[in-house]
Amino acid sequence: MYSEKLELLIDGVWRQGSGGAGEDLINPATGEAIARLPHASEADLDEALAASAKGFKVWKAMTAIERFAILDKAADLIEARKAEIARTLTMENGKALAEAIGEVQFSADATRWYAEEGKRTYGRIVPARVAGVRQMVFKEPVGPVAAFAAWNFPASNVIRKIAGALGAGCSIIIKPAEETPGTAIAFGRCFQEAGLPAGVLNIVFGEPATVSTHLLSSPIPRKVSLTGSTAVGKLLQKLAADTLKRCTMELGGHSPVIIHPDADIEKTLDTIVAFKFRNAGQVCTSPTRFYVHESLYERFIDGFAVRTRKLKIGNGLDEGTQMGPMIARRRLDAMDAFVTDAKAKGAKIVTGGERMGNVGYFYAPTLLKNVPDDARIMKEEPFGPIAPTTTFSTFDEVIERANSLPYGLASFVFTQSGSLAKKTEMALEAGMVGVNHMMVSTAETPFGGVNESGYGSESGIEGIEAYLRTKFVTEL
Ligand code: NAD
What we know:
By secondary structure, this protein is an alpha/beta fold. 38% of the residues lie in helices and 21% in strands.
């Protein structure tokens, strides 16, 4: 049973939308509607805007220690409700329950990190040129925030924005993805119960383009934070331009994976197969293009295929499931199109390459061999359980191919040589580089991309800096 009650949170009140509009929430493992999600009307959005302006004044006026106490309590509540929130997450997103539990734990950790970091938004004193003058640099919260998040990490995508904004002293209106609303709502209840003042956190849903246009054309939000596709990032940045709002853009990726000839091939395969199919490949930092040194390629393909065929696919709530469904039926068509195109250009399907069953949105974990660089899947973000692979022979060649796309989110390198690792790390155009492992996301370290993967980081000290502005005061 799906237990979360789907509501909007506006000015501290949980409620339905005033216009009566809404949509069904679908469980991707079954294709069935499991709840009804209310949409905010334009009048509701105006109330949320006014509430965020009012909430900002109250929250900003509180001391960092008072804010810490509330956020720390919210983190405890998230952790205490981990099992129940993770079930909600799996029912709306499809991912394996173990992954959902990990994501909710990350959310409690990130909330604590930002709660703590809010106490350390230090300014500085700069020695003056004139006797008697005191020069002070202050960090202030930037103002109310408008945030939008993708469905692939229903917990961590929203918590990085909520906890980041609140930790810095900002209020926030967040529109989580309509596909995965219950996780964000469950978090909202934790913050409210922890004592967050009304209007500091507002949660709305609706038709995405209408909501974003409405919120961003208002002068009230001073900051926009998006986790989503590059196409939507460009749209929102244009909308933000009219009132010159600051932006953080966490956008799409197409991570290259370079496997050098001296890599420990068995360990490398264990790592990459597990990461490739996490959340059915619907991960912005998912290992996407595999460049394998030609001397290792046949062993790589055999080992990848053996491991892939052993994966247990099914409903994320079932014991032992390692990979769940894709988010929506339309994504199955997208996977078929990538595979058909790659095949037509000369690639070979080693395993997978087709839909599974006719209940829910399952696609077989797929391994493609000898995929040419001009195949669509080598250039466009697949966001699914397909691993296209190819060979390389020299360092310069593989770096040029790895850096050839406009994206620059994560990159991965496998080698046992320290000097080769260093040379590769330095040469890659990416916001994050993983060497011999793929865990690029923690509460304490900056997460973000370069080029068309966006700009600005979440998590780490950079994550709180994104919600702060600088004021210089000089006093005689
Ligand atoms: P999306 O861009 O379609 O939607 C992201 C969010 O923006 C959703 O809440 C959506 O409703 C909202 N939105 C606001 N205005 C919109 C408009 N005018 N049109 C459409 N949506 C609008 O992305 P998605 O398909 O939900 O998510 C997948 C994408 O997110 C992938 O490209 C993935 O790489 C990216 N992503 C990036 C990161 C990161 O940190 N860099 C993390 C997760 C996902």
